[in-house]
Design a protein that fits this description.
- This protein has 378 residues and is mostly helical.
- The protein has one domain.
- Helices cover 65% and strands 3% of the residues.
- Strands 1-2 form a two-stranded antiparallel ribbon.
- A hairpin with a 2-residue loop joins strand 1 and strand 2.
- Helix 1 packs across helix 12 and helix 1 crosses helix 13.
């Protein structure tokens, strides 16, 4: 989700050449090109970070407001957000795994410094910041440490809202430690862990459920990068219709039968969601007017991810009482578009805070000091 640059350089069938004169002959040599990125993957990450912010806005702010408009609009937003739960984080981790394929091949000391220590550092720093800021918004319904013991627990065994960073450090460690093992012996236990956690057969306080459920998607992106790239490169409109239809039918069947907690159902639906998400992102890449802004957003997800919750907490404290106190007519004007408007505001303010912090030389908040750069799965 949070990587800044990848090591992937796709083959170029017709590279540019420059000519170097050597005595009596001219030698054509390939021009050096900067690393290229798959725009569909960045666009997918851009959509995912929007969905992350939107979900937090809906659950932690929008549904806490006392809406008295006589229409089930808040329930609509809550239900809509739930339909993206099998897609949002599994797709995020799959793309992270795709970007991690080169990094995981580097020596242990490089991976330990640039990835594992880097993500743990970011997690610890921003956990402290979140703990302080969220204390100023006690009404925001979110995980928070309220004691030294609670903070220690979030630092070690029960990750906070920043669990994605914690997960990447753990996943990189697992991927590196098992790099010589047969892939099936790694993927099958990870899939079983996902199914067990999704079925509620494990104790999953805080955000441990997400930690257990998404390892398999990170590893799948890591191991199956060539297949995923080929799938994206050959995505067609027909495949988009088929994958979207399969995802919708799976969601409907799961809702009708109440199968969310059946063993293996949630991971299976998430697999369909990821296949649909990759296909949709690949097709979206042909619409440059939409894909380019999303891809740009997808390349700067780190500041949005770590900053958006404190921003949302402060906006929640500022807006909860005034919006709840509006009359029914005034609320009726904003109830439908409120989540979209607030999500846009949260993202915009998060990026503005990021720029401000960089301007005052606080780049250490976004990278491990002394490291050349900290990339997320890239």
């Amino acid at each position: 989700m949070i990587e800044q640059q990848t090591g992937y350089r796709p083959p170029d069938p017709s590279p540019d050449t420059t000519h170097v004169r050597s005595r009596d002959r001219t030698v054509a040599t390939p021009a050096v090109r900067p690393p290229q990125r798959a725009e569909w993957a960045d666009a997918a990450k851009g959509v995912c970070i929007i969905l992350v912010v939107l979900w937090h806005v809906v659950v932690k702010d929008y549904l806490q407001i006392d809406w008295h408009v006589g229409l089930p609009v808040p329930g609509f937003w809550g239900t809509l957000g739930e339909q993206f739960l099998p897609l949002r984080m599994p797709l995020f981790f799959t793309i992270s795994g795709v970007f991690a394929a080169n990094a995981a091949q580097r020596p242990w000391r490089v991976v330990a410094r640039g990835r594992i220590a880097g993500f743990l550092y970011l997690y610890a720093v921003w956990l402290l910041i979140h703990t302080v800021v969220l204390a100023a918004a006690p009404d925001l319904p979110t995980d928070r440490a309220t004691s030294a013991l609670g903070l220690l627990e979030q630092l070690t065994i029960t990750p906070s809202n920043l669990w994605y960073l914690y997960a990447l450090a753990l996943y990189f460690t697992i991927a590196k430690a098992t790099r010589r093992a047969p892939r099936v012996l790694v993927l099958v236990p990870a899939a079983a862990l996902s199914a067990v956690a999704a079925a509620g057969l494990l104790d999953t306080p805080g955000n441990r459920a997400g930690l257990y459920q998404n390892l398999v998607f990170f590893l799948a992106g890591l191991y199956l990068r060539p297949q995923i790239q080929r799938w994206a490169a050959t995505a067609s409109r027909r495949r988009l219709l088929l994958t979207s239809g399969a995802y919708v039918l799976a969601l409907a069947a799961m809702a009708v039968t109440g199968a969310q907690r059946w063993f293996g159902v949630w991971p299976a639906v998430s697999v369909l969601a990821v296949i649909f998400g990759i296909t949709a992102a690949a097709r979206l890449a042909s619409w440059s007017a939409l894909s380019e802004p999303l891809a740009r957003l997808g390349r700067i997800t780190l500041p949005i991810y770590v900053i958006h919750m404190p921003v949302l907490a402060l906006l929640h404290r500022l807006l909860l009482v005034p919006v709840s106190g509006l009359g029914g007519s005034a609320q009726g004007l904003i109830v439908l578009g409120y989540p979209i408007l607030l999500s846009g505001l949260v993202i915009g303010l998060s990026l503005a805070v990021h720029r401000g912090l960089l301007a005052v030389r606080a780049g250490w908040l976004f990278a491990l000091p002394g490291a050349r750069r900290v990339e997320a799965a890239g």
